[in-house]
């Protein structure tokens, strides 16, 4: 067996075009493009004004089955599909999320696609990428400092130090910061209180940045963020602290989308990366809008499986974006379907058509869910060399029986060429006029009803159990006038249910709503099921142990 | 009295040149310049190789008397002097430190000069400036996460959790983080221990970056950093944790100097900004080296007064740089001299020639100190409208009596034009061949002797009192083989002594050495006198309250 090249090796062997060339191909003006090095740029928000009257391109959302340890390759297919559109002469743009540095340092595996379907420069994108996430970390922590300083300086707003909901963040996997006590060391160290750190991508600032439609909207969202409650249990906002201007100032560059390219020089706009559990898991509204003005076909993705990322894209992001997808691609692999059919990770190379058949149920549920929104669906199989003819034919038969388009792709190995059939299927499918989008719930539905609709319609649950704590919160949230916000579910990504071990298509379960969280700046209510990890830890042997940089600044060991 | 324009207003009214034009004037190649937006760039380290054989320019170090609340304007004079050189047809470059965001958000007042002697774009330089400080924050905190993860995963190195010297950092003023307890919440939250946060510019990573001469040297310095002691009291290094490669990778862009311009389009290289108390307070060695290869006259500065910044520049930085200054400029104002002469801040506008005469003693000591290094000195008076003829003549008379060159500058108001006399004095002074530089101490002197020499020769102390704790540390440090490192004094900047209230030229005092700190990566032993603040707090009304950004991304209220 020949040695397989790493993504980093493939990336380094490919020659990038200067970013200005990519920008020129998009007919951008020089003053709209701020280079960050030779191969990255930030795009001015003025592009949105200039192209305001342009018709939007077609929006294709890529999602997946519930992720498994077998890997699905959603980002790889997303990049590969955009390259495939480019290959067949379509002006395509891929719009992705920015990776978080924490997982990069912890676990081998990036968020920039793989093989011949990558975005470049993958090392820079996986490291500090134009400083966006660092700006968000700083903004988040500046706000925390303003809160603690307010308390230290006399606490005019009567903030209850036991009811501060704003946490600090680092863009690292650092379990020791999950639960901390700050303000120790006597009066000069402020007021002692319990606190904790999240990973930056879980910060509400990230969600706010990703849902904002302009700097003005950013500032208004920042102003609405609830950071604490007073001793009278009334909410305290950023506006009460009068720092929304300073926070917005800290984000003045981070709000500009980043332009890079794929390995085949397809333009890629990468911007924002909120968690797909306690936030909505999609790239920024501004980036997507801009891509739609600049491209004929825009391929974007959402976090985790369709039950989390796509549901939130469809119910939350589209409401801020003002645009709904023209089609949804659900990515699966034969290997992952086998795991949903009950096969262990170390038996994946054994042929097992029966397990594929069982596992298809997971895929089937996601197809059904997307169809409820009245959006056309294609299933893309990210092909592996170990997939057998029989396994594939089981899947194809199921597609035929149920009127579901299934397309094999080989974008990891062949780049855009490996996705041409998928691109062509979509081009042909999108010739039909767009049908009316169907929201799963109305914003005016009650909080309970919205949660229940998601649990039943998307997860296939029998219903929900709302804890006494969450019930009390619903009352309070309604009193605060937050009842009309959409719901952002925080649930295990590994199962359609809230129990990670239930693979396939579980039934007969109820979803346990443990607690709610008010993300008023982002503009949604988070419903937490079970324990949601907002600060990952490092493994025993972090990926960082293999990393290095040579005398010319070239990275080593980064995937 | 007419309204005085703010620095931000002056900055915004001036037209910048595109950074490529500035780079072209320095004869840099396109591939050596990585733009960060239209007006900032990073410079490739390959420039150092290409110009290795070029003769160095003249190096001028700007320092000041002990800072007072009256303000001295050291950065303004530094920028103005470079502009003045440019004005008289000399190819000059100003090499500055990067400002920290913490003070920017806290107290009105930037670190980018003022009036018509500023570096631009001042807003970007004062905010996230090409991400350097964020990269340092991330590197510092990644290391902290690796340490806590090592302990959590079994603690193979037998780190004593009570003897971890590595602290986490944020680039903010956040007193609540000075003393914290991390690792709470049960086994999933790691191992509980006392910890604390410093401001990023106090991180040893910053000092390491600023003293490194190449990526290889950076990696070796990182490897040597001592982060903790084992239960057997032996030092634990980054090398023991095997993460120097990952840390260096995180700094691969931060190590590249940043190119910007002054308001008069003089090239400015701004890079690195370590604290001048627990670190050495100078811009990076790499940036200074590069400026010396690119410019005929390089004007740089060091933190606080000559007793701190200049002493460390001369004893620490020159040893890594391999170059010593050709001249030192000591900046003072009549107002500040009056404060050193005992006048209160609110009486500064009253003429008081007697107080000037008394205050000159502070200036005199700094002149004497610099002359001990055998480097020519010029005193630059940063002129204020309130300075009287008589006050100025007192100063001039003192200069004449003591053979000290004193030059008035008006660079805040008039830019380079206001510093032409100073520039011309330096040009004429530097025609003489450079005399042999005289180090204040040999590295082979004992730790006690090195400290004593600084205290006596630079501060004018009678001697030092070394605490029992510090004495014990000296024994340990010698055992560890650290006895030959230079000393980095952490002392109040406001006084020549270690007591902030003793202005002027105190005498008859001893310096109290409370504790030592081993910065083995940076390559110095910090001697702490009194309490040194490594994490500032915010004032009751932080500067952030006035900050804002408009719909076009333009900042407001930033100075």
From TrEMBL, chains A, B:
Its EC number is 6.3.4.3. One of its GO terms (molecular function) is ligase activity. Pathway: One-carbon metabolism; tetrahydrofolate interconversion. Keywords: ATP-binding, Ligase, Nucleotide-binding, One-carbon metabolism. It comes from the Bacteria. It catalyses: (6S)-5,6,7,8-tetrahydrofolate + formate + ATP = (6R)-10-formyltetrahydrofolate + ADP + phosphate. Signal peptide: none annotated. It is an enzyme of class 6 (ligase). ATP binds at residues 68-75. CDD domains: FTHFS (cd00477). Belongs to the formate--tetrahydrofolate ligase family. This is Formate--tetrahydrofolate ligase. It comes from Gottfriedia luciferensis. The gene is fhs.
């Amino acid at each position: 067996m020949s040695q397989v090249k790493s993504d980093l090796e493939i990336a380094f062997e490919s020659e990038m075009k200067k970013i200005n060339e990519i920008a020129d191909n998009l007919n951008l003006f020089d003053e709209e493009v701020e280079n960050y090095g030779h191969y990255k740029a930030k795009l001015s928000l003025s592009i949105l004004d200039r192209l305001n009257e342009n018709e939007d391109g077609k929006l294709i959302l890529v999602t997946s089955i519930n992720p498994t340890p077998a890997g699905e390759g959603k980002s790889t297919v997303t990049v590969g599909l955009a390259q495939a559109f480019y290959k067949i002469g379509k002006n395509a743009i891929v719009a992705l999320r920015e990776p978080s540095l924490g997982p990069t340092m912890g676990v081998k595996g990036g968020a920039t696609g793989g093989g011949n379907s990558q975005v470049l420069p993958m090392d820079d994108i996986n490291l500090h990428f134009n400083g966006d996430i660092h700006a968000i970390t700083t903004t988040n922590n500046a706000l925390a400092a303003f809160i603690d300083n307010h308390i230290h300086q006399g606490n005019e707003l009567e903030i209850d130090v036991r009811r501060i909901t704003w946490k600090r963040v680092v863009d690292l996997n650092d379990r020791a910061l999950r639960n901390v006590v700050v303000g120790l060391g006597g009066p000069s160290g402020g007021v002692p209180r319990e606190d904790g750190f999240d990973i930056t991508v879980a910060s509400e600032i990230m969600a706010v940045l990703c849902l904002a439609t302009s700097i003005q909207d950013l500032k208004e969202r920042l102003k609405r963020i609830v950071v604490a409650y007073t001793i009278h249990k009334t909410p305290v906002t950023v506006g009460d602290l009068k720092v929304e201007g300073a926070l917005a100032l800290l984000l003045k560059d981070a709000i500009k989308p980043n332009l890079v390219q794929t390995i085949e020089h397809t333009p890629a706009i990468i911007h924002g990366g909120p968690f797909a559990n306690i936030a909505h898991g999609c790239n920024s509204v501004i980036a997507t809008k801009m891509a739609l003005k600049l491209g004929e076909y825009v391929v974007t993705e959402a976090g985790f499986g369709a039950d989390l990322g796509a549901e939130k894209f469809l119910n939350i992001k589209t409401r801020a974006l003002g645009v709904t997808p023209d089609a949804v691609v659900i990515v699966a692999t034969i290997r992952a379907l086998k795991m949903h059919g009950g096969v262990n990770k170390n038996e994946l190379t054994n042929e097992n058509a029966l397990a594929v058949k069982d596992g298809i149920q997971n895929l089937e549920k996601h197809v059904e869910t997307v169809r409820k929104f009245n959006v056309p669906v294609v299933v893309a199989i990210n092909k592996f060399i170990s997939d057998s003819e029989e396994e594939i034919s089981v899947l194809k038969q199921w597609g035929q029986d149920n009127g579901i388009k299934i397309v094999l792709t080989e974008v990891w190995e062949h780049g855009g060429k490996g996705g041409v059939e998928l691109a062509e299927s979509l081009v042909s499918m999108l010739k039909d006029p767009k049908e009316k989008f169907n929201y799963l719930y109305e914003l005016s539905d009650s909080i309970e009803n919205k949660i229940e609709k998601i649990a039943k319609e998307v997860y296939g649950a029998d219903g929900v159990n709302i804890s006494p704590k969450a019930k009390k919160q619903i009352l309070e949230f309604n009193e605060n006038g937050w009842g009309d916000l959409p719901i952002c579910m925080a649930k295990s990504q590994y199962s359609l249910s809230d129990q990670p071990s239930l693979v396939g298509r579980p039934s007969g379960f109820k979803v346990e709503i443990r607690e709610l969280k008010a993300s008023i700046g982002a503009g949604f209510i988070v419903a937490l099921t079970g324990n949601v990890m907002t600060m990952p830890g490092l493994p025993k042997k972090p990926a960082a142990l293999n990393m290095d940089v040579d005398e010319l600044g070239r990275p080593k060991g980064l995937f």
